[in-house]
Amino acid sequence: MEQKFIRNFSIIAHIDHGKSTLADRLIEYTGALDKRLMKEQVLDKMDIERERGITIKAQTVRLYYDADDGNRYQLNLIDTPGHVDFTYEVSRSLAACEGALLVVDASQGVEAQTIANVYLALDNDLELIPVLNKIDLPGADPEKVKKEIEDVIGIDASEAILASAKEGIGTKEILEAVVRKIPPPSGSIDEPLKAMVFDSWYDSYQGVVTLIRVIDGKVKKGDKIIFMSSGKEYEVTRVGVFTPLAKDVDELSAGEVGFIIAGIKELKDVSIGDTITHPDNPTKQPFPGFKKVKPVVFCGIYPVDTKDYDDLRDALEKLSLNDSSITFEPENSAALGFGFRCGFLGLLHMEIVQERLEREFDLNLISTAPTVVYRVKKRNGDVLEIDNPADLPPVGDIEAIEEPYILATIIVPSEYLGGVLQLLQEKRGIQKNFNYISEQRVILEYEIPLSEVVIDFYDRLKSRTKGYASFDYEFSGYKASDLVKLDILINKEPVDALSIIVHRDHAYYKGRDLVDKLKELIPRQMFDVAIQAAIGNKIIARSTVKAYRKNVTAKCYGGDITRKKKLLERQKEGKKRMKQIGKVDVPQEAFLAVLKLG
Ligand code: GTP
């Protein structure tokens, strides 16, 4: 189609403000799906997938809209991941667009994720169309929210569209605004192929499905293509678009969006943000902004039962088929045995993976506390990147340690402000901005060490604000901090999996706290268990779990054998979730005790 009739756009919104509902409404209005199919799709997407033999993962769809100006437009609605850990993927999806609908819940107002997404959209020079959703709700206050958008985001909201995705109000106005306000793409069809990858997933029948935005040139079935960052070449076997059902097309040309399938077996061979071109007539410059995503949060994952090691490896391999951002490498801990050091894009990503491993693969696991990647400058000039406290070089060799910081945006009702400011201070936050959005709400910008955020920040923020605070972040870079390694010794033996890296000013109370927590968590044994916290050779806190006074079964009445058996059974059960450290049974909670430090 002629470029002047193409519009590429996304919907950006805070979670629950109505992005998916609005997308469904747009699809329905433009008639891409009739009502019956729509229902089926909502009820059982799987059926449609089976029928077409291709997984529909993203809600990236091509719609045709007959506008009031008498022309028919091709609208490509591009989905963005709705999850703070996937900022880079969001930025690439937005880079595939010329504009975005900025959806704000008219009863809630601007939230942290709204702002974070707006920044990403503005970085990509997108035209933003404000949409105030949920105007059907009695609590909706469009005028107030318009003012918030103007004050906080700094864009004109006077023409914001009032909508209810639920009731279908404003749908046509939104489509008209997309056509009128969002510029058409501007690439050249005569230039060599330049297409940017903005999403991909693994389909068990088709292999890797890759979503692309063609910037220049065109791509069709049978073409040889090359991924510019990896240099890997493939032959295109299928080209198509989602309507939202997968539909083959002859070609995708400059300005268009769609999928290609090219016999790619592994998801890790396709990097988001990479540029595809023709090897025999390549584009001179790849599309800008590509970067290789690197995990930012690491933890050790160990099977409770060493027999499960191979199963754990198989499970990690299976998961990474569908999520190439997970990394894992075999690791050996003196305390926990054989396991894997796993890397994730963020805390939520880590929690999702851990949960899937336990649920879908039925594994009983012990995870160590999450850590960030520290940059250690050694006195001999070497610079190391360290994602495991156990790998920190001896104190004498270290010149400086740098840690990653984030820039956090937090929006909080003013009644909870005191508690939030205190939390930010405890977390070593540095205030960058403080503004009232309205009389009732404040927006804060803080630089915070990522290490403080990965440990119990979000839960605490939520509990101090009864769930009313919203939070989003981006990386802001590395900074030197006065950090030390805190070791834990159980009966004089250092337990590598319990070591943490902490700020020197917090080391004493964290050491004390950790030792107290461990004392509560480690059950009594047949002998005294000494728990100590140390920095280098210096013990900074200690505590003892006293031995049983009597045999456990002694309190059973002499003859009651069933009762005695039950007690022993129960003890055995309890043992399953324990890890033996030296002669001491340590429960898995102990390895996460550090998450609960005040
Ligand atoms: P995530 O998919 O979780 O990111 O949320 P989302 O932003 O896509 O929001 P979603 O469309 O799932 O809507 C969130 C909730 O708001 C759902 O319960 C919807 O039914 C409801 N909702 C969406 N639009 C409207 C609306 O216009 N009015 C009302 N009253 N509710 C709406």
Automatic annotation (TrEMBL):
Mode of membrane association: Peripheral membrane protein
Enzyme Commission number, as recorded: 3.6.5.n1
Presence of the UniProt keyword GTP-binding in the record: yes
Enzymatic class: hydrolase
The entry's keywords: Cell membrane, Elongation factor, GTP-binding, Hydrolase, Membrane, Nucleotide-binding, Protein biosynthesis
Localization in the cell: Cell membrane
Domain Tr-type G: 4-186
One GO CC term, this protein: plasma membrane
Major subcellular location class: membrane
Role noted for this protein: Required for accurate and efficient protein synthesis under certain stress conditions. May act as a fidelity factor of the translation reaction, by catalyzing a one-codon backward translocation of tRNAs on improperly translocated ribosomes. Back-translocation proceeds from a post-translocation (POST) complex to a pre-translocation (PRE) complex, thus giving elongation factor G a second chance to translocate the tRNAs correctly. Binds to ribosomes in a GTP-dependent manner.
PANTHER family: TRANSLATION FACTOR GUF1 HOMOLOG, CHLOROPLASTIC (PTHR43512:SF4), TRANSLATION FACTOR GUF1-RELATED (PTHR43512)
Protein name: Elongation factor 4
Species: Deferribacter autotrophicus
UniProt gene name: lepA
